[in-house]
Amino acid sequence: MTAGSWTQADLPDQSGRTVVVTGANSGLGYAATETLARNGAHVVMACRSVARGQEARDEIHDAVDGASLSVRELDLADLESIRSFATTFERERSELHVLCNNAGVMAIPRRETTDGFETQFGVNHLGHFALTGLLLDRLEATPGETRVVTQSSGVHEGGELDFDDLQSQESYDKWDAYAGSKLANLLFAYELDRRLRAASKSVTSVACHPGYAATNLQLRGPEMAGSTLRRWGMAAANTLFGQSPEQGALPMLYAATAPDVDGGDYVGPGGFMNMRGAPEKQQSSDRSYDADRARRLWTVSEELTGVSVPLPPTDDD
Fold first, then answer.
1. Is pTM beyond 0.85 here?
2. Would you call 178 a catalytic residue per the annotation?
């Protein structure tokens, strides 16, 4: 079996394993949750809306006999909610085998999180940075290899981070902000891998991207901007070019479960323009491997979130 032909049927048995999936109530998160549950995992569905999470849980229960699921509130735009989720998880679960940093927002009008961060940078990167830092002890304490899987996007290739204006207060373009947040995801995933390796930890940090998957993610920006025409256009593009959420979730599932995955890997669809097809290991942009930039982002992220991750920088940094 090679990565280029990998499907849901190749997912290893997940019995006895606990997985946290952020944004589990819809899109890629829902598809990944259903597949993981079907293969025996207990999935903690980390959702901003508990009501929508419970609806999704009930749908999966109807589709998967014996599915083991729990819904917990997690608002990645609120550091207090992230801390509360981590505290509740540690109280309820003794093990964590995989953390899937999946949830995100895309190309929305400028908004700010509860803590005053630009929403795309705050949710897509800072929220997941804080969550990972707060759950790292549980990942380390779980026997065997454990993983952090961070969802990025091919759009990261056009991304840049302006450390003098990370919150886009001086200038804001919704697509530039999205691309920057997705670059931040990769800088974080690779820096986490470097630090874990240097500290000889059993946790593996992996990154992935879904290609072009047709989900509600593409529709939220036009909806928030009140543009019916743009919403119609995006819906049409999804229909014409997008692959299904189930297919789009395969890179994340591969990154989370495949035995040949190594720390620092980047997994995405291997088909047309890396936008569709079966998952394979790929290379991200040169900028995403910039260790100096990654270390600076790490330091700034700790300062902004107040979450200190107990992993010192490596000599390579």
1. yes
2. yes
